[in-house]
Each structure stands twice: as C-alpha cells, then as structure tokens.
Amino acid sequence: MHTKLTRLLISTALVTAATGVSAQDVTLTIESWRNDDLTLWQDVIIPAFEAQNPGIKVKFTPSAPAEYNAVLNSKLDAGSAGDLITCRPFDASLALFDDGKLADLTDLGGMANFSDVAKSAWQTDDGSATFCVPMASVIHGFIYNKDAFAEVGVEVPTTEDEFFAVLDAIEADGNYTPMAMGTNDQWEAATMGYNNIGPNYWKGEEGRLALIAGEQKLTDPQWVEPYATLARWGDYLGSGFEAQTYPDSQNIFTLGRAAIYPAGSWEITGFNAQADFEMGAFKPPVKAAGDTCYISDHTDIAMGLNAASPNAEAARTFLDWMGTSEFASIYANALPGFFSLSSHEIAMEDPLAQEFVSWRGECESTIRSTYQILSRGTPNLENETWGASAAAIKGTKTPEDLGAELQAGLASWYAPQQ
C-alpha cells in the first residue's frame, strides 16, 4: 500500500512538473517578408524580449518578399502558419481578418500607445476592430549626394521651380546624372514619383479621403498635374532609363554617378552601407513658396496574431511588448528609415533618418493614395498607377489621357465614383 501510494505521488509530481514546464516553455514563431531583418530580430529584438519574459522563446522565420503573401495564405489554410503574422497595410491584412485568420487585438493594452491614424492601416473600415499592432511607417522624399551639390554649387530646393533649376544645373555641369530612377519595374515611378510629389497637389488626406468618398475624381487637376510634373523628369534620368531596374538605380546613386535619388526612407540602411559620400535628404518641393507641405508618411508594417495559434496568451504578451518605448526605440534605430508609429518620443541616432522624420513637425502627413479601399477591385488602382506613372515619365501618354483611363477603371467597379 505504501509502495503504491509512493508511486502514485511520484507519478503525479512528474506529471505536474511536466505540465508546468510545457505551460511556460512556449516557442512563438513569427512569419514575415522582411528577410533582410533576420539578424536584427535574432541578435537584438528577440533577446531583449526573452530577457524580460523567461519561458517564452521566439523564432523569426521570414519568406522571400515577393512570395510572402502566397506562402502565408497557404500556411494559414493548412494550419501550419506561425503564431505571429507580420501584416502588410490595409487590404491584404483586412482580408485575412475578415476571413478569420487574424485575431481581434482591439483590447490589447499596448494599443493605447498608438493613435487612430497609426492604427488605421490595420482596422476595419468602420474602425471598430484593430487586428495588428503598428510597427513602423516609411517617409517619401529625395536623398541627395552632398558632395555633388557642393561641386555643382546648388542648394537644397524647397519649391518646384528651384527643384528643376537644380536639375538643370547638374545636367549642365555634366559630371552627374541629375536623378537616378528607371521605369522598367514601374512601381518606383508610382511610389517614389507620383505618390512622393502628389500629396502637395491633392493636399494629402483631404484629397485622398475625397477620392474615396467620390467627391473628387482622378480627372480633376490636382490628380492629373502630378503626371505633368513627372513627364518633365524624363529629361533628367539619364540615357536608357526606360530599361533601368530598381537595383540599377540604387547602384547608380550609391556609386556616386547620380546626384539625386527619388526615395523612400527604407533606403537609408542600404545606402549607408554602400555609399562612400555624405548624403542628405529633402522633402518633396512645394508648388510655390509659402504653400503647406505634405509628405507621404506611409503606414508600412505591423504584427498580428494568428487566430488559430495554440500559444495565443504568450503571443499577446509579445504583442503587448511591441507597444512599449523599448521596442519602438530598438526597432527605429536598428532600422533607420522605418519610423515608429507609437506615441513614444523616440530619439533617432542616424542623421539621415532624423532628417526624414523631422518633416513630421513641418508638414501634413498622409499615406499613399491608392492603398486604402481603392485597390480592392479590378482594375486595381495601385497597379494601374504604376503603369500610368511610368508612361507619364516616358512621355508615351498625356497626363489628361492617363487621368481619364484611371478614372474609367476606378468607376467601373467602385460605386462612389460612378
């Protein structure tokens, strides 16, 4: 009897111990498209979290960027996706939430550290549910070679007239291609072209929201005129820009062959590593001196919870930590150019990143005009804007024709524009 009781107690103790270990020893897996961030997560972010949360381990398992959506969707359908899902902005993530693949995080404590604007890219249209924790935005503008500007004797432009005068001076000098950008891949023409300079025309959120409401049309002057400005860019992009790819443009600039690069702040880390000259940045020039400036401060990346995760409690602990100033500071400074969306004041160590983020205090912020709601149908306005922007720069279609084509495509499926 005594022996049986002893065995029973030992057996119960072992089961309890094993259960206790399994309850604490949780491993979370993160799905992401940012495969270039692997070292950052492994060496900096994850150790900082694990130091404060013993018993929760984290693995960062990225996919190739171009394959991420397809890979993630297949994993979610198969029930093999990770616990934490890196979220693209707006419709792609909203579709996952509507399909029951992402959990509702509205009541997560860390959400209190993000404004409604910061959360808007990962909310339902009515704002009633938030399903991803905002991580960072990217800001559009122009990066320039300070040595080239000094050699040519030009200053940073603030108006469009000054901008084209600078391009003319660099072209006349002959030692640099004025601007490094091609149209081969098309998306750059829209992202670093149209949606870079365009907010100064359509007045940022005012125009973007009016387009969604059907109160403005893509044939209105404020939506057509940026194409006319882009049409002037073609004279300054160098010979053969039509066949120039995105990596080609990056190399031309970082090798010191071009003076200006129409940019997103996501370029900072790579350019810092590759360029051996000092760089500066300037915001999209306004149409006339004294005009209010607008910048594309685009909500870019967030983190959500796989609704089917068996480790939801631990995953929510991680997501809560992502709302802290510690995470915001680590992420923003380890990846200069990806700016925290939290309400915490974050000091930027990289001077180029600080230049970009300083524009938030000078200009009105908006996001890319095509990303929310307007690209849910066919034809997809975002993709159509790629082709239109490239055509404007190459001069193959007039700005007016491009506006008419885009408006017809949007009106073909979007009721407020009909």
Keyword list:
alpha/beta, D-Maltodextrin-Binding Protein, domain 2, 18 helices, 45% helix, disordered N terminus
Describe the structure.
The chain is an alpha/beta fold and 418 residues long. The chain folds into two domains: 184 residues, D-Maltodextrin-Binding Protein, domain 2 (3-Layer(aba) Sandwich), CATH 3.40.190; 212 residues, D-Maltodextrin-Binding Protein, domain 2, CATH 3.40.190. The protein contains 18 helices and ten strands. Strand 1, helix 2 and strand 2 form a beta-alpha-beta unit. Helix 11 packs across helix 17, helix 11 crosses helix 18 and helix 17 runs antiparallel to helix 18.
Q: Report the helical percentage.
A: 40-55%
**Could you name the CATH topology of the largest domain?**
D-Maltodextrin-Binding Protein, domain 2
Determine the structural class based on helices, strands and strand pairing.
alpha/beta
Shape verdict = globular
Mean pLDDT: 93
Work out the strand percent: 15-25%
Number of strands: 10
End-to-end separation in angstroms reads 85 Å
What is the subunit arrangement here? Answer: single chain
Radius of gyration: 24 Å
Number of domains: 2
Largest sheet: 10 strands, mixed
Give helix and strand order, one letter per element, not per position: HEHEHEHHEHHEHHHHHEHEEHHEHEHH
Q: Architecture of the largest domain, CATH level 2? A: 3-Layer(aba) Sandwich
In the predicted model, the low-confidence regions spanning at least 5 consecutive residues are 1-23
Give the count of helical stretches: 18
